[in-house]
Amino acid sequence: MPKYDYACPECGVFEQHGGYDATSVKCACGLRAKRQAVYSQAVIFKGGGFTKTVLPPPGDPAEASIMQGELKKRGWDADRAISELRENTVTDEEGNRSIDLAGMTQTA
């Protein structure tokens, strides 16, 4: 049996196993608790997805070199960006890593 959320007027909302057709169950306090409405998902993802539509296939070096050339035309240099990220990564005493933006250049 699946779990559903039920609302008791005395105890509040709780989760309990219930039958598909059971609209209410008996709460621990003795009152009847009504099953809460089940809502479907709010976001629907359609299409091929980011990795299929934006990024080149990983096994195609010709496509990757064309993409790097296009990025360089627009002022992006992936190698420099990666090296700057590595140089400006700091680790605190708890082991958390972050990027020190003060040491970064303004252009990519």
Describe the structure.
The protein has helices spanning 50-53, 61-73, 78-87; strands at 3-8, 12-17, 24-26, 32-35, 89-91, 97-99. The chain is of the alpha+beta class and 108 residues long. The chain has two domains: 3-35, no CATH class; 50-103, no CATH class. It has a four-stranded antiparallel β-sheet with strand order 2-1-4-3, with no helix packed on it. It is elongated and about 70 Å long. The N and C termini lie far apart (55 Å). The mean pLDDT is 77.
Tally of strands: 6
Helical element count? 3
Q: State the order of secondary-structure elements, H for helix, E for strand.
A: EEEEHHHEE
Mean pLDDT: 77
* Largest sheet strand order: 2-1-4-3
What kind of sheet is the major sheet?
A: 4 strands, antiparallel
SSE-based structural type: alpha+beta
Gyration radius, to the nearest Å? 27 Å
Quick structural gist:
Residues 88-97 have a biased composition (Basic and acidic residues). This protein has helices spanning 50-53, 61-73, 78-87; strands spanning 3-8, 12-17, 24-26, 32-35, 89-91, 97-99.
Features:
alpha+beta, 108 residues, two-stranded antiparallel ribbon, elongated, Regulatory_FmdB_Zinc_ribbon, Putative regulatory protein FmdB zinc ribbon domain-containing protein, four-stranded antiparallel sheet
List the helices and strands and how they pair.
Blueprint: E1 3-8, E2 12-17, E3 24-26, E4 32-35, H1 50-53, H2 61-73, H3 78-87, E5 89-91, E6 97-99
Antiparallel strand pairs: 1-2, 1-4, 3-4, 5-6
